[in-house]
Amino acid sequence: MSKLLLAICVSIGLTALAHDEGHGPKVADTGKYGGLVSAVVLKADAKKGASAALVHKAELVRGADGLVQIYLYDDKMKPLDVSAFEAKGSAVMAAKVKGKWKDTEFPLELKQKAFEGKLPKIESKPFNIDVTLKAGGKELLSAFDDLD
Fold first, then answer.
1. In whole numbers, what is the pLDDT of the chain averaged over residues?
2. 36: number of CA atoms within 13 Å, CB side?
3. pTM, to two decimals
4. How far is C-alpha 55 from the chain's CA centre?
5. What letter would DSSP give residue 148?
6. CA torsion angle for 107, 17, 36, 142 (degrees, to 10)?
7. What's the confidence (pLDDT) of residue 9?
8. 94 in Cβ contact with 100 (< 8 Å)
9. Distance from C-alpha of 90 to C-alpha of 118, rounded to nearest angstrom
10. Can you give the pLDDT at residue 12?
11. How buried is residue 63: exposed, middle or buried, by Cβ count under 10 Å (0-12/13-18/19+)?
């Protein structure tokens, strides 16, 4: 019983330290394209963690060929009109390589209903992807953590 209790305490402690405690409130929605859903917050509010105000929601869909697609939704998971967004965005893949965090940036481009980009070579797992997009003169951030 004590080993189980120790394992639970350790896993809770590690979760609390993961990736700056996240960027924005937790969301529990299911992706419409089979991807992972995360909060979109103002990039300036990212350090607020879970208390950052939800601006939108984003779904990350990854293909076997390394294609990454980001779909955007309102707070009720209704697809957003992405014409208000700048056509180019960026993403950063962060992974621990030899004990140190390594960031690899890659571009995203708006194509019809989603932002698309090619995921760089994955050097270690798990890894994180932070997506930065612009709309209405504001930078927005969505973080997808502990990907494998």
1. 86
2. 17
3. 0.82
4. 14
5. -
6. -40
7. 38
8. no
9. 11
10. 38
11. exposed
